[in-house]
Fold this sequence. Notes:
Keywords: Chromatin regulator, Chromosome, Metal-binding, Methyltransferase, Nucleus, S-adenosyl-L-methionine, Transferase, Zinc. This is Histone-lysine N-methyltransferase SETMAR. It is found in: Chromosome; Nucleus. It is a single chain. Helix content is about 5%, strand content about 25%. The longest helix has 9 residues, at about 120-130. It is mainly beta and about 260 residues long. The chain has one helix spanning about 120-130; strands at about 5-10, 45, 45-50, 60, 85-90, 95-100, 110-115, 115-120, 140-145, 150-160, 170, 175-180, 190-195, 205, 225, 230. It has a domain at about 1-20 and about 80-215 and about 230-250: Beta-clip-like.
Amino acid sequence: QYSPDNVAGADGALDPTEITFPGCSCLTCAVPACSCLRHGENYSNSCIRPAHDEEGFARPVFECNAMCRCGESCPNRVVQRGLQFRLEVFKTAKKGLGLRTLQFIAKGRFVCEYAGEVLGFNEARRRIQAQTPEDSNYIIAVREHLHNGQIMETFIDPTHIGNVGRFLNHSCEPNLFMVPVRVDSMVPKLALFAATDISAGEELSYDYSGRFHNIPVTNRGPETSEEGNILKKPCYCGARTCTSFLPWDSSLFSTP
């Protein structure tokens, strides 16, 4: 079932459509007056602003929301506008279905969201453990490390209800990177932005592990075909730095 936006999962743990943020009272949103931009500007000409290397962390992104006075043309409304590019699902040689762009995409532009059912930890773990080695896994676990040491977890499953983002393949040298973007509540939209200029006809990809734009390549550990007696799936991205296997996260297989 196609859904452009996140929906509440079967466990009902989180409702992504609930509006919990207060809105700003700006007619024209700008730093520092706008309460939605208290962490700084998010976008410049519809492109996400890069994080400063010296900060050592990514600034949280909050867009203006349904309670704000500013209109639809506000420059702090990008991800919520949805798809702006013509994309195509296509059959790849070795990776099943994939997603490519039919037009040029400039570096920093929002491409698409990874949307699906928003699950709590227990339901996400139940679904992961019910999978067989032959099943494709679409469940993504995103962990945000806060300044106080806390970790916020978001689990999205587009297996049965999702959007075009579910067809994105992994690459060890991807052309997209993921940023959690919050609009109406603390439930984030998992937004994918162009990491470089992307030509028409190019396949779109991101790093399933989240390392890209997050952890330096030098911190990567050696990849093996087996981890915790689980056979890992081969990676066919074809990148020069390919690690040979798809990223693996054992946290949903273990008991808390």
